[in-house]
Specification:
By secondary structure, the chain is mainly alpha-helical. The chain has helices spanning 5-21, 26-34, 37-42, 45-61, 73-93.
Amino acid sequence: MTEAPTTQLATLQSALAEHRQGSLSASALGDLARGQKALRAALPPRYGEVLLSLLDRLEASALFTEESCSFSRSSLLDHLQAWVDKAASVLTSA
C-alpha cells in the first residue's frame, strides 16, 4: 500500500531535518525524496521538476567540502525547505 502524499511529505521533512543535522547523507535524502512518488503525483508537475533539480544540485554540492560559488549547501537546504512548505500548502488547500 502506498503512503498518502501528506505522510510522504512528513517523511521528506523529517529526512531534510536529519540531513541538516548531519545524520543523513545528501544521496540518501535524494533517494528518499525521489521515492516519494505519491507526493509528486499529488502536486502540479512543476513541483516535481523543481524538487529533482534541487536534489541534483544538493547531491552535487556534497562533492565539495566547503561552500563554493556554484553550490551553497545552506541555500539549497533553504530552498528545499521552501519547497516542502509550499508543497504542504498545496496539499492542504486541495
